[in-house]
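Lab notebook, bench 4. The sequencing result for the construct came back, and we need a structural model before the next group meeting so we can plan mutations. Quick request posted to the team channel:

Model the 3D structure of this chain.
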Amino acid sequence: MTEAAKVAVPEASGETAPAPQQIHFYEKHKKIYIRSVQGWWATWRWVFVWGTQLLFYGLPWIQWNERQAILFHLVERKFYLFGLILWPQDVFYLTVILILSAYGLFLFTAVAGRLFCGYACPQTVYTEIFMWVENRLEGDRPARLKLDKGPMTGKKLRLKTVKHLIWGLFSLWTGFTLVGYFTPVQELLTNARHFGFGGWEIFWILFYGGFTYLMAGFMREQVCKYMCPYARFQSVMFDPDTLVITYDQKRGEPRGVRRKNADNAALGACIDCSICVHVCPTGIDIRKGLQYECIGCGACIDACDEVMDKISQPRGLVRYTSENALAGKYGRTGLMSHIIRPRILVYTAILALITLAASWSLLTRVPLRADVLRDRTILSREVRGGKIENLYILKVMNISETPRTFSIQVSGLEGLELATGQQITIAAAENEELTVSVQVPMGVTPKGTHKIFFDVVADDDPQVAVHEKTTFIMP
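Done. Here's the predicted structure in token form:
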């Protein structure tokens, strides 16, 4: 059974068996109706929504040197990042990016908790956008509750249809934009006008768009609570000095409604209005303490501060602070000094070293690649003039933004020479492959395998050069 199992109790002799009991293994999903909230934290959430989406939807349209500025061109097997061009041989930098992302995640979480989840995570950002559309069409929390509980009327059908239509179009545009990072977006737009998409382009537009529609429109908090691994291992990166969303129990308890002409001195600051629960995108009660479902969005802080203002109480019943600060081990002035602690210094040092090393490698790398492969069809052969010839396949990649002419030289053996052309011109960000004949006079070099070297040098800049090793076979 998926939702419940019936446990039968054996019937005792002479006694009536009790009714079967149901044990529920999975809690039935309840739709969360989020109440809109305004405040300092809500403003910053929308700053990140606008910032991330302007970057995501805008970057594919930026041009650089008559091409798309950011393009991960899978067909050409080249990654363009403004003036930087990465080839498959540069997979090292992908590894560095993954390492930096991991250490950056550790550092940011150890300092500030799950603020990434609450402000910059795509799931949070798109859910915020979808909820904004829903709120504008169907109204705030009470209106949506009433609409969903009511019968299907013409107005309800119209509102639901328009909402899902907007969600669907936005999701398709999101999928189109994603594919625009892997196929030139201008080419993609032309194909869209003539319905000339390729098979994989159609698949990824529908796949990514469909998941945006599903996760931001329907699954929402379930992704954060059940699918995202970050929520599960975040506790490993937390410590008592990590900044998190907290509820001050000493000040808030015992909670209760404040009544006129009554002695409210025994009550805490919390009036048990539950607005902090109504505004939470994952539907938790922050008053129960730190929970893995909390994404650190700060909506409950804005809601509680608004209530505190109405009842003339100081703000900060729910606030962004650390467990040690909440326990009174240090005040607000000591909060920032406890952020800089040994683990933070270690994470920062490692992150800085890797970043500096990767940056230095990118800045000093030679904008030229050369690969030398032996022609396996002919290991060596005797040619006219009493010479032994070996054939090689030379692949030269010009990874700069300007066309260049390169000179090819060989060394390593007495009498070694190129029997083919010694120059090659390659367009900007292109590569050329050519078959090269290398010859040695017979009898000058003993039989066996010998090391030789290919030198490829740019004619306009001797510093742009590579030195590749290979072998020459003398029969």
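The mean pLDDT is 87.
Will bring this to the meeting.
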